[in-house]
């Protein structure tokens, strides 16, 4: 992912976050779900979610057999 693509994706995520919080505070929960789905898809495209899960999986204690 190039830097230009990342900035476009970051701008889209910030706009979607604004609409998500606006819908939440207006108690329009259908729109909350709508914007949350779009936000999660864009975060997955930016590999932010996979980085977090990789970080948490590596920091969790390992089970010994």
UniProtKB/TrEMBL annotation:
It holds the Pfam family DUF3272. It comes from the Bacteria. InterPro entries: DUF3272 (IPR021690). This is DUF3272 family protein. It comes from Streptococcus zalophi.
């Amino acid at each position: 992912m190039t830097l230009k693509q990342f900035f476009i994706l970051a701008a889209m995520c910030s706009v979607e976050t604004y609409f998500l919080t606006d819908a939440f505070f207006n108690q329009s929960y259908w729109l909350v779900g709508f914007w949350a789905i779009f936000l999660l898809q864009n975060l997955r495209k930016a590999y932010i979610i996979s980085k977090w899960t990789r970080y948490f999986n590596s920091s969790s204690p390992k089970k010994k057999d």
